[in-house]
Write a structure and sequence with these properties.
single chain, 69 residues, alpha+beta, 3-stranded antiparallel beta sheet, 1 helix, 32% strand
Amino acid sequence: MKQFICIMCPKGCHLTVDEDHDYLVSGNSCNKGVKYGQAEATNPVRVVTSTVSVKGGNARVCSVKTADA
């Protein structure tokens, strides 16, 4: 079993995902938690944020973020 804290709404439900029973999610208070728990257990993805150096610009660095997870 894997445990996560859901980030899909402000409640922050403590989810438990049972991999042995078809990724059954418990601890959620809405359907968003089910989708999040199953996705996080099977294929966790992240958005990357960072800064890059700028040469010859008005600023020395620029913030960047990936378009998708």
